[in-house]
Amino acid sequence: MKGEMKNILVIGACGQIGSELIVALRERYGRDNVVAADIKEPKNDEIASSGPFYYADVTERACLDVIIRKHKIDTIYNMAAILSASGEKNPQLCWKVNMGGVINVLQAAIDYDMVRVIIPSSIAAFGPDTPRENTPNDTILRPTTMYGVTKVCGERLCDYYVKRFGVDVRGLRYPGIISYKTLPGGGTTDYAVEIFYKAIEEGRYTCFLEENTLLPMMYMPDCIRATIMLAEADFDRLEHHNDFNVAAFSFTPGELARAIKKYIPEFEIEYKPDYRQEIANSWPTSIDDSVARREWNWKPEWTIDSMTRDMLEKLSERHKQGKLYDM
Ligand SMILES: NC(=O)c1ccc[n+]([C@@H]2O[C@H](COP(=O)([O-])OP(=O)(O)OC[C@H]3O[C@@H](n4cnc5c(N)ncnc54)[C@H](O)[C@@H]3O)[C@@H](O)[C@H]2O)c1
Fold first, then answer.
1. How far is it, in rounded angstroms, from Cα 303 to Cα 315?
2. Which residue of 19, 53, 60, 162 sits 20 to 30 Å from the alpha carbon of 314, by its own alpha carbon?
3. Is residue 58 within 6 Å of ligand 1 at its C-beta?
């Protein structure tokens, strides 16, 4: 063990997950000890006003070095990525950012003798050959999207750095993440966030996936808790490092629409599947996360119903103030 995590850098801090992770980490480790970086200006006031922020491109090693030296960074969370749907539109950029980012962060971890690195993976690492129901942790990884390819390569590369160079790098395979603070960044499960905004704003939603498309999902508070739990887990207990399945619940667009109708009875949904349907069809319907439960005590707290109620409450409040889209 190389000591404690004291000075943390979050790259991709303005994204859906990064923007909430940064707030949670600043509460935990102190505002000036958690540095945010992104190629996007923070829309969310909380990021810029609650601690240091830098413009930095994860594919430019020199940008990272300036921040690492200035803030004596010992821990990096790399949340910068091009997600599944955006990745299919621009596969080369997806490779450049996702793989270029991972190798830069891993090399920086060696060069600066860092304590820890966190690099998330995704259920997109799986593919049509993977058992779809209760998908095991250690199984067939043959994704059919560029995003999935980069996630599998990222997992393998990170595990290689653990074994070959002793870098303490950890990662978990997020399912679709649902949240109300920052809009999602071009994934196949984005419908499960958009639907809440449209339900409140217009009382109706046109879904880009079919009614019965069952996918694993998680509410943001569980996602942040899982990420920090894994980051702080005892290294000696970890048999896996960069490919932990984590699960909370699975639902279809039809089931989510029914959960929303309990609170907004007049809500209507129609289905117009687009290119994202094929991506969804290649992913698991549910996830076996027993390895994460065993190695670092993972356990979700939110259900589809408690999440739906919370999402509608939080977004309705913003809507009443005329600030539905003000993050
Ligand atoms: N949100 C989900 O449902 C989900 C599911 C599975 C896995 N993940 C993984 O979680 C991580 C975070 O995802 P997210 O949902 O917050 O994504 P996001 O698209 O919302 O955010 C990514 C952030 O990275 C930034 N970024 C892009 N290119 C960059 C570059 N070259 N340099 C620096 N920053 C750059 C973007 O500006 C954006 O703010 C990613 O690794 C993603 O693959 C997310």
1. 18
2. 53
3. yes
